[in-house]
């Protein structure tokens, strides 16, 4: 066996027009290691991985596999060479079944002329169950975004590869699924498969990885053993300055008057009898496992999904929200968890994406005021730290995390009374995350009601003053004060080994 | 800008034609070309907006015809021609509203809805006319002036056309209401999640497209002094082709009025050139198709280069 | 005294079958077909497809056939595609006569039409005479439609043969579309400022052509084939020069006669080989129903609505 | 299943018609209906596959015609009819390949490419025939049998049609190669990421669609014993309508052969019923359109209920 690294990238540069996404990057992956790749949003992580997987071609530089210079001209070639990639952006065939998606590459490579659905479904279910018991005959379009993420991961597990790349696989996963994934990755490692792991969650990197490479502004900064590093050090290398990773201070004293009160909200299908209050000054969290129904509750509340019964009181006034536009008019806005499908307009400019929620702000008479729109976009992108060419660029030219920042900027552009954020920091780097947390706290302080749905437990506990935990479409309990991850998980999963905890509700 | 490629191609063709035929670069010929696509150009405007929102309308030819027929029949029944025209245009708008209903409330797609409308509305023209062209010979001259009159040597039709195009091009680029059309066509779900009433947007765009077709019908009536029940058969393909050549996508989210009009101009220059050069009728179709394909390929090439 | 044999049995039905059935050309044909039928005490029906599609017309023909009529007067959209259906009908004992377009390879008994070549020829003469035999002319075409192609070919042939100073300067396809005809004539006028006449083999294009001519000073004489109310008005107003119009009424009336005869070959006792060959003894291969040249002087006599009113009938609706 | 809704509607219409007209449920009438859509049905198969991959082909009518014309002209030049047919089909496949080239290599969209092809290929038919139908009366009876012969009273055409439909329906559901068509149409990027050569897939599907149109052309030639240069004008809309009624989406990723054929059957039953009921020609189009719209709405309703 040669001692050459499995995959080596030397002096790789990539330009998109005027944007230098990567500059003279070196990267090497040893056999059987789990190699973390860190960097701010837009640092060039996904770009490098897309080059390794044959999706993009480098502007210059070379790629070596087992020490031999190789050209990876297409995803098909990458697959033949044994390089697999779990994409940051979900890329599934929505109209096909989960099973077909999972085995798409295998189907493509197989010689047999006919499909064998029975075997396909059986094998797919086996793979799927490693992560979560999603029925594989379902069409992908029926799945929530987090479940789609799991399918995307399952898909990669069926590849017969030597190098497996995970590009932010856990961005929308809860602790349980994340742990299941780690289990699998460790098994893969034991089979001496080499793994590149991209994440913005430091804890994961330190729990899982052997080495860590840091990128900044499209350049390689450092590669070290994880055991030689600390999270703070990694972050400093990423950002180039010290960042306090601590959460903003929580609400001190009593919260103000009730802004929103929900009583017995049901949709007759996915959730039932949901009641909670939101008070001025506090940040309310919604916790739960994937598929618990948090997203549906938020959608129901905002008129984006029909509800069958329930009462919503906004600022002391009972309101009936027929559809989302009327919710927006009443000051209730929702940030979608599914960025690509319903969060941003990929082909439209950054400025147009930000102004959409309240076009009146940028309208004079019946015409758009381009200058106002540009000013608004400039102010908000700066505030959010969006890394971009210019505000007229299409959102599709942004990195995943920066797209998410644009989506949040859109919510910030209006002055809502209640803001519901579903997985707000999905794919967002450490520095920006802290900024967003601060922003949420400021909003809460200024009297805006803030509800955060997050699958990332530390975030949920760190940011929220109070957490309502949802289990199978019902309120399983509520936590406040000094919350622990364990308590949330226990409520969310309904496991009651400490007896009384389950009866908190 | 997408349009530059088309402009370059049209200019190149025109220069070539100027050398090939002494008649090409005359005001008479330019006027002839403009006249020949001015009225259809009004329909192209509506179609482009509809394509941007992700729709399509196969019924425009039938609606143009029905607007003609209804206005004509009203006039023959003694209604004054201006009121008759208004009725024709209103009926067209109503047809658009009906299609909008089927698309936004019933939930059918634009293709099948407008296909059915195409057949139904054509049928209604047959019913009204009993298959024979209505002779509107008695239309008063001041009404005929819309289609046949001039203003300082420039035909009214061209003035109307330019006004409509400039106005809608401006609105489409600048008006808030039309921006919503882009949002809806670009990503309907995201638009809904941004508080845009996408159904309303689609409904009104559908109405707009039919209404403009109705306007075109009235102008045609004024120009030809007749209402023929077979008028406009197959027009939709030409219109959609112009918009698509001009950069509109059948998947919605992109397109400009100016581009679509350039697409129309390209088609018109080609047709007109073939006649000026006295190309055999048997060869005209093939050559026209080849030039079209070539032009679009070159445009695509110029366009994708710039990215 | 023998009973008059020239009448129908109860339920004896004769059908006329066309494509693009909503178009005015057929109406006078059917009207006279029906009148003849009534005189014979027969039932008649007007069938066909509203579409310009030979497969659909054959389907409607087959459907008419499935009801077992005594005879079918058919305008076959294309000649050979109708061979098989017509033969099937004849083999089934249903008489078939073609009109205005033929299917010569089939077993149809008769074919009645105006002479497209003569129409083209007369149209040419009328135009050339009006221009004193000298000048430029163009044609609008509808390539692929047989009777239209014939008219155009005859028009051009006549000009070349008899009017050497008439110069053909342009041919364009307008495909029966007024808007295309308008554009084509505008372009033709640009290319040939001295254009004196344009001929087209059908009525739809004429509306556009006339308007284009008018916008350019009305120097171009518009000559066409077929008429309708609108064309007649324009002829009277001088916007259109003239039209050659087939005698549709005679086409329908004589068409019925031929068909009725074909359905009753038993009426004669042939003195030739028909009995042995099994062919229809009532076969009259070809009848010319004639045509008129319509000009401002006689245009008033061609209004269809006036005729219907005078007769008090409902045209194809009965 | 999408198809059940359509089956229910077609059955309901048929039952109603059986009561309304004694001629409806006769073998003669059923045969006429089947014959009227059998050959087009073969084209529908190709179109459906193309729609699934996200394409569209406006040139099918022209290609059907050109296949007829080329085979016919070859035959008249002395080539035996079977070889002539093969040449006609090959030429059709080549046209498909040319379109595939423009779509996958040059990067134009299917709409504009096939629109240009529609015009060009129609022009080529005109050039070959000089506008006059080719009379192929001398085709040998064993060749004519394809289009005109029967087998135990069932026309060969219907047998061929059923065979093609059953085969492709099966393949589309079960064959690995055809699954790739779905994947490509559903999400081209995702398919690429899985190593599927989506360009190849699109190329071959384009070729398949034209080839089947070529096959249809040859069958038409055999059935009609003629090659008419105007044959198939406007056919594309009917074909696409059938596929869309049957559940195909213009955005790709969905559709079934069986559904598309049911769509075709629905259109045919409606047309046939109107003729049988002796509905006034003036009213036929309108009623046909209304029934179509109603049927599609009901189908949509039945379909969306089930989700
Ligand atoms: N198609 C494109 N066109 C133009 N610019 C692009 C394109 N794709 C990526 N970029 C730019 O390249 C840079 C690197 O993007 P990349 O997606 O690699 O970042 P990343 O490190 O993965 O970030 P994130 O953590 O947000 O996913 C960004 O500045 C981005 O805007
Ligand atoms: N109509 C439905 N019938 C059955 N299951 C459904 C339906 N709609 C959604 N689901 C399932 O519900 C789950 C998604 O629910 P939801 O998105 O509300 O969960 P969540 O708590 O927000 O979690 P996540 O973090 O996944 O968003 C998925 O497993 C999805 O398959
Ligand atoms: Mg990334
Ligand atoms: Mg969720």
Automatic annotation (TrEMBL), chain A:
| Domain annotation ABC transporter: ranges | 7-242, 254-497
Q: Which SUPFAM superfamilies match?
A: P-loop containing nucleoside triphosphate hydrolases
How far does the signal peptide extend, from start to end residue? none
Which Pfam families has this protein been placed in? ABC_tran
**Record-annotated membrane-spanning stretches:** none
Q: Which family does it belong to?
A: Belongs to the ABC transporter superfamily.
Entry protein name: Sugar ABC transporter ATP-binding protein
Q: From what organism does this protein derive? A: Devosia neptuniae
Automatic annotation (TrEMBL), chains B, D:
* Compartments, record wording: Cell membrane
Sorted alphabetically, the keyword list is:
Cell membrane, Membrane, Transmembrane, Transmembrane helix
**Does the entry feature the keyword Cell inner membrane, yes or no?**
no
Where's it mainly located?
Answer: membrane
Show the InterPro entries listed in the entry: ABC_transp_permease
**Membrane topology reported for the UniProt record:** Multi-pass membrane protein
Q: Give the transmembrane region(s).
A: 30-53, 60-79, 85-108, 115-139, 151-172, 203-221, 257-276
Designated name of the protein: ABC transporter permease
